[in-house]
Amino acid sequence: MRPRNNENRDLPPGMVRRKRPRKNGKVWIGYYYRDSAGKEIPLGTDLSKARLKWAELEAKDKPADLTMMKGMFDRYVRDVIPKKGERTQKDNMAELKQLRPTFDEAPIDSITPFNIAGYRDARSAKVRANREIALLSHVFNMAREWGLTERENPCQGIRKNKEAPRDYYANATVWDAVYAVAEQELKEAMDLGYLTGQRPADVLIMRSDDTEGDYFLVTQGKTGQKLRILMRTDAGENSLGRLVREIGERNIGHPSKYLLI
What is the mean pLDDT of the chain? Predict the structure, then answer.
C-alpha cells in the first residue's frame, strides 16, 4: 500500500484533507471521505465533525478521543475560551483545572446529574463550585452543538450552593476619605468610574481617543458590550466631558495612549 503523504497522516484511513487559497489570503480547509470506488464524499470543514461522519461511513465507533470528557475540554479550550475576555479566559482555565481531575477520563455520555451534584457537594470552595458547574454546563451545550453527544445537559436543574450577595457600597464618608488622600491618578480613576459606571479594569484601559462626536466610547472587557456615553449636550460639556478634556490637557506631552498615566 502506498504510504500516505504527510498532509493526511493525522487523519483516519480513507479521509483526506484539501486546501484551497482564498483571494483574501486565508486558506480554506475541507475534509473528504474516499470510498472504495475512489469517489470523494465531503465531510465539511470541522475536523471533529468530519471524523464523526467518517466513523458513520465506515460503520465504526466514534474516535475514542471524541467520546471522552478530556477531548471535549480540549476542544473548548481551543475553540471557545480564546473568544472570551482576558479575565474570563483566566477564570475559565482555573475552573477547568478543578474539573479535569474528576471528569477528564469519563465518557461524555456517562455523566449524570448525580455525578454533577456529587462534585458540588465534595468541593470545599462552595462559591467556586457554582462557577465550575456553570462552565461545565456550557461545555456540555457546546458538545451538543458539535455533535459529540445527543444527551440532555446533565447540569440542568442542579441546585447551586447558596451565595451571600455583595452588599457593600462605598458611601460618601468612605469615598471622601479615600479621595482626600489619593494621588491625582487615583482621583481621576475614581471619577471616571463614577461618571461612566464601568468596572475598574475597564476604567484603567480607557483611551484618550475613545471619543466620537459628543460621545465617549467604552467596550466592556468582560462582556464585549459597546457603550456610547454622552459627554456634551446643547448646554455644553457635562461632568464626564469636562473630566476627559481636563485629563487630556494634563497628559499633553506624554506618549501614552491611555487616559490614566
Answer: 84
